[in-house]
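Blinded run. Sample ID left blank on purpose so nobody reads anything into the name before looking at the predicted structure. Input follows.
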Amino acid sequence: MTGVAVVTGASRGIGRLLAEALEGAGWGVERGSSAVADVTDAASVRRWVDDVLARHERIDLLVNNAGVVDAEVPLEESDPDDWWRSIEVNVRGPYLMTRAVLPIMLEQGSGRIVNLNSGSGTKPGEVASAYNVGKSALGRITGSTHQSGRRHGVLAFDFAPGVVRTDMTRSMPRHDDRTEWTDPAEVVELFLALTDGRLDAWSGRMVRAGDDTVEALLAATPTLAPGHRTVGLVPYGEDDPLR
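Blinded prediction complete.
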């Protein structure tokens, strides 16, 4: 067995795709769902992680996949409860899972955390603003996890799967006229490269299926510099004091 992987939101869609890919690659996979654990509830997360650890004695990979999208309306028309629920699932969920698993990985001296992010996290959203806010915040969680873990053998990645045809994407009006979808095979290929160590140099950064290939990322690795493929402040020029 390659290792023990925990995948949240694995009952359908991207989560199920990734869980099946890991199993095919020889991983022992613990699949999460709303029936297994509520990722927004600290006690529920703790019970699940403790149960996994008791049975396997280690956790080598965490995939924070569970996520939701808020209603596709402008911020001023959004429902506060719907908006905040999106933040809770997309931010609090990965935080609680990472907070529970990261100490285990640090003690082991190894581990990887893959956060399912999106290009929406790199820009403001005209509609469904909570989704953009949540994915931006998730990128900060990834960066902080990278900072905490990199010297101890624990790495973290933002993984954008592109736009795969799933129940969630089909329910989103923004995709009603879409004719091009990301091939699930491309998602799996890039994801497995993050989990098996080939793309460890990209820890703390975002990669996107459908645009990135493993070969292209490996070729670009020598050119990486601080800030590449991360969300940050763009200065107005060389004399900008906030550079």
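Unblinding after everyone has recorded impressions. The first strand starts at residue 4 and ends at 7.
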